[in-house]
Amino acid sequence: MAVEKKAVPMREQPVEQRIKNFDEVPLGYSEEEAIKEASRCMQCAKKPCVQGCPVRIDIPVFIKVLKEKDFQKAIDIIHENDSLPCMTGRVCPQEEQCQAVCVIKKMGEPISIGRLERFLADWDLNNRKNKKAQEIRKAAAKNIKVAVVGSGPAGLTAAAELAKKGYDVTVFEGYHKLGGVLVYGIPEFRLPKAIVASEIDLLKELGVKFATNMLIGRALTIEDLFQEGYKAIFIGAGAGLPDFMGIPGENLSGIYSANEFLTRVNLMKAYKFPEYDTPVKRGSYVAVIGGGNVAMDSARTALRLGAKHVYLIYRRSEKEMPARVEEIIRAREEGIDFRLLTNPVRYVGDEKGVVKQVECIKMELGQPDASGRRRPMPIKGSEFKIDIDEAVVAIGNTPNPIIPLTTPGLKIKKDGQIEADDWGATSIPGVFAGGDIVTGAATVITAMGAGRKAAEAIDKYLS
Amino acid sequence: MFKILDRYVLGPKMHYILMEAPLIAKKAQAGQFVIVRMTDKGERIPLTIADFDREKGTIALVFQEVGKTTSILAGSKIGDYLQDLLGPQGNPSEIENYGNVVVIGGGIGVAPVYPLARALKEKANTVTSIIGYRSKEHVFWEDKMKSVSDRLIIATNDGSYGKKGFVTDMLKELMEAREKIDIVFAIGPAIMMKAVVELTRTKNIKTIVSLNSLMVCSMGMCGACRVNVADKTKFTCMDGPDFDGYLVDFDLLMQRLDTYKTEEYSCQCNTK
To answer: Taking CB atoms and an 8 Å limit, are A259 and B69 in contact across chains?
Structure first.
């Protein structure tokens, strides 16, 4: 049988419409589309996609079952390894993972594994809303308390896995709302917040308890948690202080870190100001600095807030951009003005201290640096100014410092990350860690993988 | 949950609220603050902890009605619950035996000066408190401040109560009388703290200020509260709120405090 070389496309909101709203851009597969796409899978014996998946979902098997229209069984297979498929189906960089190694890629487009995962996860969510919740396979209660610090992807995954094993799990979240980066960082148009809330509701059905407004390291420390009777602790505290370039004028009004800009818009819903109380500047000419997914999210958010022109300023070329190809394409489609091989050198403000210009310098690529990418070098005398009224600095962040600062005996690497082995074990017995707090800024799925492994390690430690 | 146990009006648009918050009360120290959010659609705002009682499990907040959140908080009644309360946030003030200490509170800033003076007194410092208000009707906590001060100087801008003048005028008098001052702590509007620092710099008296920058997360993640200290970017929530006043760029702080002036105005109109 000849293999269909082209993937079934996913419908999405047209560009001219979507730049005026915060609704999700890709609209998902219909049942027919999903089955058609699933039929392209060759069910090859080597299953390279499973190795390409950080949490080792049995991809060919769920695709086969999907093709047979047994959606419940298909989602059950995914759930065995992935507690949050609604999210990973949307935000995983599949083109670098499972889909990058797909056998069909040699002759055409790889199977759209992410889209199929999303289809099943959305089907499951709708089904759960309509019917009584599925019986979730769960071990007998062990009556052993485990604390999870942080409710982002690492923490939620660890909590789900531990609850399934029968532990009494409480998740502590510093913010007033659950979800971590899934709610403060990733915009609504990439990951609708109602979906995050539904996935968290499922964890509540599993018996996971949640405490918001509880910042571990301040009101309660790791030591306090042990005294309160928790037998093991998983730390998934995530991202910390935003990085800045340290150039003149960077603290002028109108210059945000991406963390602040996105938190205002996503978590505090500043795009609905004044219905919501938290404001955000709505610049007309906005410069976003950086080339990762967070930079793309910031640029596309600025556009949706009404910017006339959004510049994306990145010091290397497009090839070196860490952002997902899909996001780069969408940003370009939406009219983001990519200024590549360009780096800011200073900001200029008006008499009230509000940013009005960014001065940049042109760059060229030299020899490869430690990251393997060619090092950008400034071209002397190539400085030029761009008129702006807002800037968003999206060049990364350091790990959150609060737990490292308030937990004596916890070994910290020199860049501020918590030292942990492959299974998340830290220098303190019973304390495990995973996600950005251990690896530095990475993806949702990597954090989930770490949460999953740590849950297994915690189970072993407590048995 | 965070139940309001007591509340009263301190002066024009100035309020006192006592609330149940045992975990926060247990850990709170002078210099720390909380984040308050009043509704599902509300903003997160920082308020300094004006008092705490570890045994009773209570904390007190003193605040001025300036925006939507503080207006809603001002309208709350005994028995009401706060939607969200996070704390204690920020680093505690560094309390040591310094010797002769002058603490300065301006307006609503008198409230956080109270636990600070109390902590300094407990460390056997000789505490002179200078508290300044706009006028007599704004004066609050005179007795409380007296109970933790070796000497209390009250000033009002218009002279309707205590001495006439600004807190800096009072400090200047002490300095001109060649009193021995080992350290000054100042809490109040940015412009007041700036003026205090300009004065103490002339005699090289160490001065600690507590910065009131804008904030969103308060937990070292968003960077809304960044300030320039010694020409370096610092985060008020993680590195402060106390800083060496000589090193703070107050002009930048004041510019950044004005970032949302137009938005704040439209938000307040919306509540009416």
So the answer is: no
Q: What is the pLDDT of residue A131?
A: 57
Out of A212, A259, A268, closest to residue B221 by CB? A259
| Helix, strand, or coil (residue A61) | helix
Note whether B27 contacts A219, CB cutoff 8 Å.
Answer: yes
Give the contacts of B116 (CB within 8 A, at least 6 positions apart). B30, B31, B93, B95, B103, B185, B187
| Residue B264 dihedral angles phi and psi, to the nearest 5° | -60, -40
Q: Please give the full DSSP string across A160-210, using - where no structure is assigned.
A: HHHHHTT-EEEEE-SSSSS-THHHHTS-TTTS-HHHHHHHHHHHHHTT-EE
Indicate which of B222, B234, B263 best probes the interface with A, i.e. most A CBs within 10 Å of its own CB.
B222
Kindly identify which residue of chain B lies nearest to residue A399, measuring between CA atoms.
B221
- Hey, of A278, A280, A282, which one would you mutate to test binding to chain B, going by the most B CBs within 10 A of its CB? A278
Regarding the domain delimited by B2-89, which CATH topology (the fold level of the hierarchy) does it fall under? Elongation Factor Tu (Ef-tu); domain 3 (2.40.30)
Local structure of residue B230 (DSSP, 8 states): T
Confidence of residue A370 (pLDDT cuts 50, 70, 90): confident
CB B251 within 8 A of CB B101: no
Domains in chain B: boundaries: 2-89, 100-257
- Which of A176, A269, A276 lies closest to B84 in CB terms? A176
- Dump pLDDT digits (tens) for B40-51: 999 999 999 999
- Put simply, whether A275 touches B (Cβ < 8 Å) is yes
Prediction ipTM score: 0.94
Distances (CA, A) of B49 to B7, B191, B211: 15, 21, 14
> Nearest residue on chain B to A274, judged by CA atoms?
B267
Tell me which of A135-139, A309-313, A458-462, B102-106 is least confident.
A135-139
- For residue A273, give the chain B residue with the closest CA: B267
Interface-testing mutation among B81, B221, B254, with chain A (most A C-beta atoms within 10 A) = B221
Tell me, what DSSP letter sits at residue A132? Answer: P
Residues 250-269 of B with CB under 8 A from A: 251-252, 255-256, 258-260, 263-264, 266-267
How far, in Å, are A250, A284, A308, A407, B217 from residue A253 at the CA level?
9, 15, 19, 35, 18
Average pLDDT, chain A: 93
Topology (CATH level 3) of domain B100-257: Rossmann fold (3.40.50)
What's the gap in Å between the CA of A213 and the closest CA on chain B? 5
Cα distance between residue A59 and residue A61, in whole Å: 5
- Determine contact, residues B82/B36, Cβ cutoff 8 Å: yes
**A176-235 tens-digit pLDDT:** 999 999 999 999 999 999 999 998 998 998 899 999 999 999 999 999 999 999 999 999
Q: In this structure, what are the phi and psi dihedrals at residue B207, rounded to the nearest 5 degrees?
A: -135, 125
DSSP code per residue over B25-60: HHH--TT-EEEEE-STTPPPEEEEEEEEETTTTEEE
Q: Answer yes or no: do B267 and A273 touch at CB < 8 A.
A: yes
Q: Considering all CA atoms of chain A, what is the largest pairwise distance in Å, rounded to the nearest integer?
A: 71
Biggest alpha carbon–alpha carbon distance for chain B: 54
- C-alpha–C-alpha distance, residues B221 and B86, integer Å: 15
Please name each of the domains of chain A with its CATH number: 15-129 (1.10.1060.10), 145-240+398-462 (3.50.50.60), 244-395 (3.50.50.60)
DSSP 3-state of A130? helix
In this complex, the residue of B216, B220, B227 whose CB is nearest that of residue A260 is B216
